[in-house]
Specification:
The structure holds 2 protein chains of 2 kinds. Chain A is built from 20 helices and 24 strands. By secondary structure, chain A is of the alpha/beta class. In chain A, helix 1 (24-38) packs parallel to helix 6, helix 7 packs antiparallel against helix 8 (195-214) and helix 9 (239-254) crosses helix 10. Chain B has an 8-stranded mixed β-sheet, sandwiched between helices. Chain B has a 3-stranded antiparallel β-sheet with strand order 8-9-10. The radius of gyration of chain B is 23 Å and the shape is globular. Chain B starts with a helix and ends with a strand. The chains are: A alpha/beta, B alpha/beta.
């Protein structure tokens, strides 16, 4: 056996790319899971096309999964790639420009046929024409190698072909000294009733591993040690899944039954899928006939006493708008999740964007204030979902959660939450005044009305979309009453400010540049600012969780910096709010490419400003 | 004390709210409200367990006048809100009050889906064949050629046949009644309440302002008996002032026959509420001039209800897997410790 050396690395960025049917997402998931178990910190970024199975070999059909794993505390899936796995010429075409020079390219040579090369727009075979000379290229006949490994099993070539992602996985496990056991036991569980598939995939996995071990061209193994994470129990978590867990935790801890009404839409559907399993937690899911019915059912469920939630993406919010207004005027607690994607219209269904912030803030008829909270990382989705439920119930209001395709599908190691440290969710119980129930009487502090559920004797009352009279809740068209109610609804939302944390500044409390972000840009901004500070630059970072209301101390903090930079994956939406709220001439950084920001984009932008 | 004094029976008054009713004088809605308030005590349901849900339109102000729980929602969406209420708390008695525009136009999609799911809701559609609250535009049930504010040259929209839409959506109950027939209205409401599953009542309701006398052929004293057939389950279909006309089936086509020495009751079509094909034939009576307009229960059949099936799944899930453990779920199967 050749003598192999081992090199230590801090972090590695790998991207798996292939046809939609090649199992790239699965390969990414398995590598991620193993990296988490090894103790690496990590960030992932699944990036797939809107088409389910575009023609094999086409550029449109390329599906990719990127991850960064590290022995340090990291915040993003990484910028430039250390390793690109390209299962066909189209995958190479789409992703080669992101590979570092001297980076490793693993290509499945078996798929570099004249037909596939032509489909991907390569005039010559790049594996043959020396055009990849800046990279370390391993062109392997993976299809042939897995066929060899499984030849005595009598399997169809189609089945064999589908094991090639496990060959690639095995090779990478060898390269980065990963354990194979977790993947083996996963395969055994996954194909419990199909022993031949377990066997075939195990053989492919092992063949890949052995190939690295015995082939002379692979001279180096790499080691990425465990990251110094805070002590605790961890798991790997995907954003949408964390959102679902946060909702469930809110329901279980408040003892309010969870009702989820929604309509399938990318990239939010996984929340519906997940919650539909939780029947033994008393969770009721309702797949409605359309987005409008989804939110309608939520309004009804809220009236009847459920912790009522819907999740959708931008186009769904557009349809739900009128009913959300009904939630506002009837002052019922409900949570509306927008897993944002590229727009307008159908836009970029599987790509990420942050362009629905102003829609969440203002996108309804009339004066219709709604609290807005945004998640910054996959794991943060849990806390944001829980907090949104708490505020909705306490203040009797719809609450908007903004996440996006990037964190919804991305994952990270997540320290398990301490449930007993979460704030209580308190219901505002109704009371009778001289034997009478006054549905629009308010709590003095929160201005939330009480929640009197059908079934409760003596509290029979009517609510609805027409303007209500202060206190009694009867229909009222009086000008003064309307003015009062408009102001009360706004004041109620702004009073939440006393219930949310003060602003945390990362870096110095005062200085040259403050990078102000919200939502999924957290990782890129934080790691960029971290590097800039290491370089001695005067840069700090504030990341907003609550956007409506904004933290009470934000205004003063912004004034302590000479310049405020606001990166957003939109044409400048938070910046409009900041400018109008604080009259600060903040500067925007706006790339709207359907992709998350990278650390280096943030660094370069800040350096331009210094 | 006997049981009666322990459990005071409700009266009509208990269902009258303190809100002033604001329909136009002479509106057919008054009659429907009165009959509903009159009949509610019969059902012996505590009024705190009753919820009236409505959309938008003249009819949809109805919940404000009922001293129960109520929700006046948005245009066309009442079935969705009612679904959320019923699924959340199946113990509630939920009514949906709607109109022809609300249910069949802007809310058409929700209506067909709530019916196919067969949630146990009582849906009452006030059909006045016009938009009243927006002051007189044609509705999806307005007659072809009808001149209205928005169709000065006559409507070129083909109207819906209400029972065909409802039965086409696999509803398990359809009945029709008329605002000016209080007894029949009560009977229909009672049947709707007794039916477990989605029930749909079409009430012919006169809009005195924008579409007066739209139903005069079935309401005018002089002609109504010859133009209306009141369906009775298990009985031959007989109608007419002198009860001398009947319905006979010629192939699949119904026809009116005079009952005489040659044609007896045995030759007539017998109503069967469980016969879906017959219900479809009845639905189309109004499409043919020579046939009378059927009122009463067209179709009634029990089938599993959505909220019941969902509750069953919840129970079964707890039986199979035990009550869910949040901590376990959060920890997942692949957690690791960092010390």
């Amino acid at each position: 056996m050749p003598n192999k050396k081992t090199e230590k690395l801090d972090s590695v960025v790998i991207r798996f790319a292939g046809d939609s049917g090649d199992g790239m997402q699965l390969m990414g998931d398995r590598f991620t899971n193993t990296a988490a178990l090894v103790g690496n910190d990590l960030g992932t970024f699944p990036d797939f096309p809107a088409e389910i199975r575009a023609p094999a070999g086409s550029l449109a059909g390329v599906s990719a999964f990127q991850l960064q794993f590290s022995s340090k505390d990291i915040f993003t899936p990484g910028d430039k790639l250390d390793v690109l796995v390209a299962m066909n010429p189209a995958a190479l075409k789409m992703h080669i420009e992101d590979l570092k020079s001297d980076g490793i390219l693993i290509a499945n040579k078996s798929n570099f046929t004249p037909r596939n090369l032509k489909m991907a727009g390569w005039e010559n075979d790049p594996l043959e024409d020396n055009s990849l000379k800046n990279y370390i290229v391993y062109d392997l006949e993976i299809s042939r190698l897995v066929a060899n490994a499984t030849e005595d099993m009598g399997l169809s070539s189609k089945v064999i072909e589908r094991t090639k992602n496990f060959f690639g996985l095995g090779l990478l496990y060898w390269m980065y000294g990963r354990p194979m056991e977790p993947t083996k036991s996963w395969l055994e569980k996954k194909f419990k009733n199909k022993p031949e598939l377990i066997e075939a995939n195990l053989r492919a996995l092992q063949a890949g591993y052995n190939f690295g071990d015995i082939t002379e061209s692979f001279a180096t193994k790499y080691e990425v040690g465990a990251a110094p994470l805070k002590a605790g129990t961890y798991r790997n978590i995907v954003g949408n899944y964390a959102t679902g867990l946060g909702l469930l935790a809110a329901s279980q801890l408040s003892k309010l039954p969870l009702f989820f009404g929604g309509y399938p839409i990318t990239p939010a559907s996984d929340i519906l899928h997940q919650l539909s399993h939780y029947k033994n937690y008393g969770v009721k899911t309702f797949q409605a006939e359309d987005e409008i019915s989804g939110i309608g059912s939520v309004v009804g469920a809220a009236f009847a006493g459920s912790l009522a939630v819907t999740a959708t993406s931008g186009p769904g919010i557009a349809l739900k708008t009128e009913a959300i207004g009904l939630g506002v005027i009837s002052e019922l607690p409900m949570v509306i999740i927008n897993v944002q994607r590229g727009g307008p219209s159908t836009g970029l269904p599987t790509k990420t964007e942050q362009a629905d912030l102003l829609m969440a803030m203002h996108g309804r008829n009339g004066e219709s204030p709604i609290p807005v909270i945004a998640a910054s990382t996959p794991g943060d989705c849990f806390y944001v979902a829980y907090e949104a439920c708490r505020i909705a119930v306490k203040y009797m209001t719809p609450v908007f959660i903004l996440t996006d395709g990037f964190i919804a599908n991305g994952s990270e190691p997540w320290m398990l939450p301490e449930l007993d440290k979460l704030k209580d969710i308190k219901v505002n119980e109704p009371e009778l005044r001289d034997g009478e129930f006054l549905p629009y009487e308010r709590d003095e502090k929160t201005l939330g009305r009480s929640w009197a559920l059908p079934g409760l004797k003596g509290f029979e009352h009517r609510v609805g979309g027409l303007e209500r009279e202060h206190i009694t809740g009867n229909i009222n068209y009086d000008p003064d009453n309307h003015d009062l109610m408009v102001k009360l609804r706004a004041k109620k939302v702004s009073s939440i400010v006393d219930d949310i944390p003060k602003t945390e500044v990362y870096g110095k409390q005062t200085g040259e540049i403050l990078v102000l972000g919200w939502g999924s840009t957290f990782g890129a901004i934080r790691s960029g600012v971290e590097s800039l500070i290491e370089e001695g630059k005067s840069v700090s970072h504030v990341h907003l969780k609550w956007i409506n209301p904004l933290p009470s101390d934000l205004g003063e903090i912004l004034l302590k910096f000479q310049k405020v930079l606001i990166p957003e994956i939109n044409s400048g939406q938070l910046i409009k709010i900041i400018r109008s709220e604080f009259l600060i001439d903040a500067e925007g950084f706006n790339l709207v490419r359907g992709k998350p920001y990278t650390k280096s984009q943030i660094i370069n932008k800040v350096k331009e400003m210094i | 004390m006997n049981e009666k004094t322990l459990k005071p029976t409700l009266t009509r008054k208990d269902f009258v709210s303190d809100q002033d009713v604001r329909w136009c004088p002479g509106c057919g809605d008054y009659s429907i409200l009165t009959q509903t308030q009159k009949i509610m005590p019969e059902f012996d349901i505590p009024k705190e367990k009753i919820v009236f849900v409505a959309g938008i339109g003249c009819s949809s102000r109805f919940p404000y006048y009922m001293n129960t729980y109520g929700f006046h929602t948005i245009h066309g969406r009442a079935p969705t809100i009612a679904s959320g209420i019923k699924i959340s708390n199946p113990d509630l008695n939920v009514w949906v009050i709607t109109g022809d525009g609300d249910a069949l136009s802007i809310g058409g999609n929700h209506l067909i889906h709530v019916l196919r799911r067969n949630l146990d809701l009582n849906i009452v559609m006030f059909n006045n064949e016009i938009y009243g609250l927006t002051k007189g535009q044609y509705s999806p049930t307005s007659k072809f050629g009808q001149k209205t504010k928005s169709s000065p040259f006559g409507s070129i929209d083909m109207p819906f046949n209400t029972p065909s839409v409802v039965l086409g959506a696999k509803a398990t109950f359809f009945a029709r009644t008329i605002d000016s027939q209080p007894k029949h209205l009560q009977y229909t409401l009672r049947r709707s309440q007794e039916h477990i599953g989605s029930s749909f009542i079409e009430v012919f309701q006169n809009c005195i302002i924008f579409n007066d006398k739209a139903f005069s052929d079935v309401t005018d004293r002089d002609v109504r008996d010859d133009n209306v057939i009141d369906l009775k389950n298990g009985e031959p279909m007989i109608f007419g002032k002198n009860k001398d006309k009947g319905i006979r089936l010629d192939g699949f086509s119904p026809e009116v026959v005079s009952i005489n020495e040659n044609i007896s009751n045995d030759d007539l079509l017998v109503h069967d509420e469980k016969d879906r094909n017959l219900a479809s034939i009845l639905a189309n009576f109004t499409e043919k001039e020579s046939l009378p307009t059927p009122i009463g229960v067209f179709y009634s059949e029990e089938k599993p209800r959505y909220e019941e099936l969902l509750e069953d799944q919840l129970k079964e899930s707890i039986n199979n897997m035990g009550t869910g453990d949040l901590n376990k779920l959060i920890a997942g199967s692949d957690s690791w410790k960092v010390s």
